[in-house]
Specification:
By secondary structure, this protein is an alpha/beta fold. The chain is built from five helices and six strands; from the N terminus they run E-H-E-E-E-H-E-H-E-H-H. It has one domain: Flavodoxin domain (Rossmann fold). Strands 1, 2, 3, 4, 5 and 6 form a six-stranded mixed beta sheet that branches. The structure holds flavin mononucleotide. The site of flavin mononucleotide (FMN) has 20 residues, from helix 1, strand 3 and strand 5. The site of flavin mononucleotide has 20 residues, from helix 1, strand 3 and strand 5.
Length: 157
């Protein structure tokens, strides 16, 4: 199985750190979403989609990219993010829109990873920024373990 990690990381490069660790653990190609077009997915059967969380959602370019995809078959996906605040069901459920879009395009979404990232957006700046130093070594290790567990759960080939 051939793996690809697609990401966008615009605020502090937080998600890029996670994307690199995951791509390495999966022996996957790593591409920014702005370099992607839908036909490039043909050669991959396992694809990760990641970004920071902005205004309660994954980055718009990742959601828009998912919209451009045709119906796909036999592809597995996982999603990953860094965010200022953790996910809270109903109030701050940032995964749902991306996950649903991917499922509507035929992906089997088999995993989700999220950790905190340094945040100096306007709300966080009131307290001088939050999650300084994150993702930290522990977050990166957890991201690596998550990716390895996904890798080990797939048939090789
Ligand atoms: C404009 C803006 C909006 C944000 N909105 C949210 C939000 O709704 N929820 C949240 O938990 N974090 C929010 N954040 C914090 C980011 O998700 C966090 O810093 C993330 O790690 C950024 O990832 P990046 O450096 O890869 O872009 C926001 C940050 C910015 C700059």
């Amino acid at each position: 199985m051939k793996a690809l990690v697609i990401y966008i990381s615009v605020h502090h490069g937080n998600t890029e750190k996670i994307a690199k660790v995951m791509a390495n653990a999966l022996d996957a190609d790593l591409l920014q979403v702005k370099r992607m077009n839908a036909s490039m997915l043909e050669q991959y059967d396992f694809i990760g989609f990641g970004s920071g969380i902005y205004f309660g959602k994954y980055h718009k370019s990742l959601l828009d990219f998912a919209d451009t995809l045709p119906m796909l078959r036999n592809k597995k996906a996982f999603i990953f993010s860094t965010s200022g605040l953790r996910k809270i069901r109903c109030i701050h459920d940032f995964s749902k829109p991306l996950k649903e879009k991917l499922q509507q395009k035929g992906f089997d979404v088999i995993g989700e990873f999220s950790c905190r990232g340094f945040d100096t957006s306007w709300a966080a700046m009131i307290v001088g920024g939050i999650n300084k130093g994150r993702p930290n070594a522990r977050d990166l290790k957890q991201a690596e373990d998550f990716a390895r567990a996904l890798r080990d759960s797939r048939p090789s080939g």
